[in-house]
Amino acid sequence: MFSHTAPPRPHRTSERETRDTRDAHAALRRDAAFVMACTGLGLVAVAAGVTVAAGMGAWFVPKAIAVFGVASALVWRALPTHAPQRRFGAANGITLFRLALVALLAASVGEPALHTPLLAWFAVGLATVGALLDAADGAIARRRGQGSDFGARFDMETDALLIAVLSVLVLALDKTGAWVLAAGALRYAFVLAAGAWPWLAEPLPPSVRRKTVCVVQIVTLIVCLGPIVTPEWAGMIAGAGLAALAYSFGVDILALARRSPRS
């Protein structure tokens, strides 16, 4: 006799969970696409306004779009790690806004107008806003229960890009020698080194020292951008920030090396 019992419940549950996961991912992508599009349009409007008001070159807007576009593509690629969240979230929206500010700063590299005091102070202002907002996104994510590995990585990589762009700007303004670029290169050199030595890619516990040094490095580079800061002072300030950053990386590398199972 044929059995007329219903299929096993675990199978139905699995299908439902798969469907719910797929729907959650689709909702997350729709929300993220909307936020990215709005932020991108705002970036274009601001970049166009700066071009007209400050006499930027014809490539200023395309450069800003290119930096934001490439970075946003990487953010989009990593978006699945934000699951099970269905919304991009206010915290990530703030980080995306910070990314747009970094794109504006990056686009100013190579612009002759950057050497005018007005534009230099404008760069200081943009960088300062971006640095201050860094304290807001994490707090908002925790308060709203929207924290994720995606958000933490997004915030960290935005900080790393900000440091890299600021170091290039300090050099472009002739405030220091090319050695200042090491401040922006350390993070990316560390990531590349992890490809050759996988033990460097092991997770590190949260560290107040690491967060503090990151803030110090950003602040020192912003200070160096100020028109009133002479190259002599900029060299000392940027050098102190780089020394702190190198020390922090050294501590982490040593800790990872001690935990490594290498023979």
Pattern of helices and strands = HHHHHHHH
- Give the termini distance in whole angstroms: 65 Å
Q: Which CATH architecture would you pick? A: Up-down Bundle
Gross morphology is globular
CATH top level? Mainly Alpha
- CA radius of gyration is 22 Å
Write the layout of secondary structure elements.
Blueprint: H1 9-54, H2 60-78, H3 90-107, H4 117-144, H5 149-172, H6 181-196, H7 208-225, H8 231-259
Helix pairs in contact: 1-2, 1-3, 2-3, 3-4, 3-5, 4-5, 4-7, 5-6, 5-7, 7-8
Structure in a nutshell:
With 263 residues, the chain is mainly alpha-helical.
Features:
single chain; 263 residues; mainly alpha; Four Helix Bundle (Hemerythrin (Met), subunit A); 8 helices; 75% helix; 0% strand
Describe this structure in words.
With 263 residues, the protein is an all-alpha fold. It has a single domain (21-259), classed as Four Helix Bundle (Hemerythrin (Met), subunit A) (Up-down Bundle), CATH 1.20.120. It has eight helices and no strands. Helix 3 (90-107) runs parallel beside helix 5 (149-172). The radius of gyration is 22 Å and the shape is globular. The N and C termini lie far apart (65 Å).
